[in-house]
C-alpha cells in the first residue's frame, strides 16, 4: 500500500512498509502527471496564438519606428532650411 505524507518528497510516495525499511521507495503514480492529449493540443493552440500576436506587435513596432525616423529626418531637414534661410 502506497501512502503519501505531507512531508515526503513530492516526486515520490513512501510505501507504508518502506517507512520501516522493508521496501525501497517507489515513484508516486500521481506525480508528475502526464499531460492529456487535449491539454497538449490546447497548449499548442495557445502557443500559436501568442506567437502570432508577438509577430504582429513586432511588425507594428517596426512600422512606428520607421515612421518616427522619417518624421525626425523631415523635422531636421525643415529646421536646417529655416536656419540656413535667415
Please report the total strand number as a whole number.
3
Q: Return the domain count.
A: 2
User: How can the largest sheet be summarized?
Assistant: 3 strands, antiparallel
Encode the helix/strand succession as letters. Answer: EEHEH
Helix/strand class = mainly alpha
Q: What are the segments in which pLDDT stays under 50 over at least 5 consecutive residues?
A: none
Radius of gyration: 31 Å
The helical percent reads: 55-70%
Strand fraction equals 5-15%
Strand order of the largest sheet: 1-2-3
- Average pLDDT, to the nearest integer? 78
- Summed up, the helix count is 2
Shape: rod-shaped
From the N-terminal CA to the C-terminal CA, the straight-line distance is 95 Å
Descriptive account of the structure:
The protein is mainly alpha-helical. It folds into 2 domains: 1-33, no CATH class; 38-86. Helix content is 62%, strand content 9%. It is built from 2 helices and 3 strands. Strands 1-2-3 form a 3-stranded antiparallel beta sheet. The longest helix has 49 residues, at 37-85. The protein is rod-shaped and about 95 Å long. The protein starts with a strand and ends with a helix. The model has no long low-confidence stretch (mean pLDDT 78).
